[in-house]
Structure formats: structure tokens, C-alpha cells
Write a structure and sequence with these properties.
Keywords: Methyltransferase, S-adenosyl-L-methionine, Transferase. GO terms for molecular function: protein-lysine N-methyltransferase activity. It is a single chain. This protein is of the alpha/beta class. It has one domain: 3-Layer(aba) Sandwich (Rossmann fold). Helix 4 links the parallel strand 2 and strand 3. The chain starts with a helix and ends with a strand. The mean pLDDT is 93. Bound molecules: S-adenosylmethionine.
Length: 171
């Protein structure tokens, strides 16, 4: 019986890993691979963003959802959009287990997501996608909105503030 349970769990884990890896390749093509932000970086992103209780925040490529769960107490609505279904599912499980109410995860491609009602955009993307992202952000986001980028910078857009590898941009 024990062997059966352990075997079943192992099988589920391996299936999850296989699905994760295949989707991660697709994520690399469409954006960036899954590399979770370090705790300290997330803290810097939160402090530089000056989050308000009225803010709608979107984590672009939300991974395992750690950022949306972390920022949820400080904003009206914390959203994540994630292309990898394994990660989106994992985020939803964590959110349910932690009873997160104002958190939303959508499994979709962020290039097709309309950013017009987003007040704060959290980004941890990759260098060669930043120009395309800058064009999308400037076309869709409203004046006064903030973009907080972990690690990577926009090539011509000057940040309003910069701290420990995190940059704040103002629309
Ligand atoms: C560098 S990780 C950042 C994860 C999370 N934001 C964090 O900071 O911990 C980038 C994430 O974006 C996702 N991703 C890549 N391209 C995407 C796309 N076009 N649409 C939605 N998600 C995407 C990846 O699957 C990955 O989880």
C-alpha cells in the first residue's frame, strides 16, 4: 500500500516536472524563463513602488505567484499573468491555501493582456524583450502609472528611481 501511494505521488511529481519543463521552453520563446525573484528584491520592489490601497498591481509573468501574494495586503487588487500552466496552477493552489482574497492569477500570454487599468506593473523579464515591452507599456498604461523592473532596464527610458538593481519608471 505504502509503495502504491509513494509511486503515485512520484508519478504526479514527474508529470508535473515534465509539463513544467515543456512550458518553460515556450515561456523562454515568448518572454523569459522562470527565475523567481529573491525575497530581498521583492522587498525593494515593494518599497520603491510606494504601493497604495487603491492600486491595481499586475505581476507580468507571475511565476509561482510569490509576488502577488506578498503585495496583496498593500493593494486593492493583486493580479498575476503567467504563460506556464503548471506555475499558474501552483499559484492558485498556494493562494487558496493561504486564503488570499484580492489575488487573481490568469494563465495567458502577457503580450495579449491589456494594461490600461493597471496602476503598478511589476516586471522581471529579460534584456532582449525590454524594447518591445517598453512600446507596449507606453501605448497602453495610463499617465501616472508606475513600472517597477527587477534587474533589467529599458534602453532609452530614464528611471525615476533606482535601488539595489530595481528601477522605478513613471508614465
Ligand atoms: C523571471 S520569471 C519571474 C517570475 C516572478 N515574476 C518573480 O519575480 O518571482 C518570468 C516569468 O514570466 C513567465 N512568462 C514568460 N513569458 C511570458 C508571457 N509571454 N506571458 C506570460 N508569462 C510569461 C515565465 O513563465 C516566468 O514564470
Amino acid at each position: 500500500m505504502t509503495y502504491f501511494i509513494v509511486g503515485t505521488l512520484l508519478l504526479f511529481f514527474m508529470l508535473f516536472l515534465a509539463a513544467f519543463s515543456i512550458w518553460n521552453v515556450y515561456a523562454i520563446i515568448r518572454g523569459a524563463p522562470f527565475v523567481p525573484s529573491a525575497k530581498k528584491r521583492v522587498q525593494t520592489m515593494i518599497s520603491i513602488a510606494n504601493l497604495q490601497k487603491t492600486d491595481v498591481l499586475l505581476d507580468l509573468g507571475s511565476g509561482d505567484g510569490r509576488i502577488v501574494r506578498r503585495v496583496a495586503p498593500f493593494v486593492k487588487n493583486a493580479r498575476g499573468i503567467e504563460i506556464n500552466p503548471s506555475l499558474a496552477l501552483l499559484s492558485k493552489v498556494f493562494n487558496t491555501l493561504q486564503h488570499k482574497k484580492n489575488v487573481e492569477i490568469r494563465c495567458a500570454d502577457f503580450w495579449h493582456y491589456d494594461l490600461s487599468d493597471v496602476d503598478v506593473l511589476f516586471v522581471y523579464c529579460i534584456d532582449h524583450k525590454m524594447n518591445r515591452l517598453e512600446a507596449k507599456v507606453k501605448k497602453e498604461m495610463k499617465p501616472g502609472a508606475r513600472v517597477v523592473s527587477n534587474g533589467f532596464k529599458f534602453s532609452t527610458w530614464k528611471p525615476r528611481e533606482e535601488k539595489d538593481g530595481v528601477r522605478l519608471y513613471l508614465l
